[in-house]
Amino acid sequence: MKLEKLLVNLEIAEHTPDLDAEIKDICFDSRKCTPGSLFVAVDGNLSDGHKYIAKAVENGAVAVVYQNPDYDSKIAVPAVRVIDSRSALALMASTFFGNPSSKLTLVGVTGTNGKTTTATLLYELFTQLGYHCGLLSTIVNYIGRKSYPADHTTPDPLELNGLLAEMVASGCQYCFMEVSSHSIDQERIKGLTFAGGIFSNITHDHLDYHKTFDNYLRCKKKFFDNLPAEAFALVNIDDRNGSVMVQNTAARVYTYSCGSMADFRCRIMDQTMEGMLLKMDDTQLWTMFIGAHNAHNLLAVYGTAMLLGADKEEVLTIMSKLRAVNGRLEYLRGGNNVTAVVDYAHTPDALENVLKTLRETAKGEYLICVFGCGGDRDKTKRPEMGAIAGKYADRVVVTSDNPRHEDPLAIMADIKAGMDTKTRAKSVFIADRKEAIRSAIMFAPEGGVVLVAGKGHEDYLIIGDEKLHFDDKEVIAEIFDELKS
Prior knowledge:
Number of helices: 17
CATH topology of the largest domain: UDP-N-acetylmuramoyl-L-alanine:D-glutamate ligase
Oligomer: single chain
Radius of gyration: 24 Å
CATH class of the largest domain: Alpha Beta
Mean pLDDT: 94
CATH architecture of the largest domain: 3-Layer(aba) Sandwich
């Protein structure tokens, strides 16, 4: 593709006369540049791509798109200076891959909690309805039933548009994707054509990145601000910021609620550890999910299916057979009738939702909570999570969860700071995550429930710069087996 063709829709400040270069690839990492590449210099969170322009050219880049005017005289190939190189990268990626998002029905799910469950269940539902679908999620990406690893909740623009192009080429009709706040802020989704957007909720998270809750809120809202008029915006009005999300959207607005008047409504009729009976609008259905948060997730799935024109009876029939997403309220049962529950809950709101659900469905059984907080991340949520664990659990085991470059003992001290005297008295602090899980299971009386929170689907621990294999479910199964012998 000619360089000039890639520049459509970009805000260009200036450019060299020659825009005729043939572009074979686009890269924003100079190490990945090959002969015929276009290098886009992005000022990233960790490093400034402008510093690597010369290296990119040395590796074969035949043109450069950049933002910082200080680098005008340092570029030896045709160059284009843009107002925002992040936006330019996303727009050019979409153009380069043939604007794939416009060739399928793309639905984005954003919010603090529930994105993975909602997007994954939509993918499963529409696949079982007979459509060829794609999924872009925290856990895994799918094109049809072929899986691709997921390194980020939302991929970078090149990977994202490349995956969407593969979906189009393979005949996908729908794609359901998680839209993270980072991807909105970093313009990774710029240029994508969304048929709809779903808002789950917004609570305390990612303040290490966004700095303030207002910044985080505005970032999520930006997704809905940019939806086109022909798209739909489906928002949870049980979250007080649900209406805020759609104040300035051009999209058609629809609401869902488990407690108020809304376009789509749901009520929990009954629930046990095995599932819950829901009244979805005017129809009852049994689901293999528990908890008010999952009632909201399932209602969002149902509402979206209705907005996309699916048959109600067929949708509800399939929904009654859907199962929990990997690492979301997954159960393992051991000897002595002890139940271990693995969940990704890593925010205050998510941890409270899961603990409340288990407290309600476990019918008075002894409840133990094992959790930690990630290092080099938002520190303000640590004491809050300590207080929440103490509020609902009979015993708390605080441990490590991807400490990265922080001292695990310092992280645990931050969590402890949020605990009152009563909570501290029933808490233990064990930095070794495997030993923490073992201790919790050993503490559990007959019929007890052990929640192991924070990692869910993740099968690793990040300690320093090392990524070590660690899977909560594998560890629990191993400990259960040991206790049998």
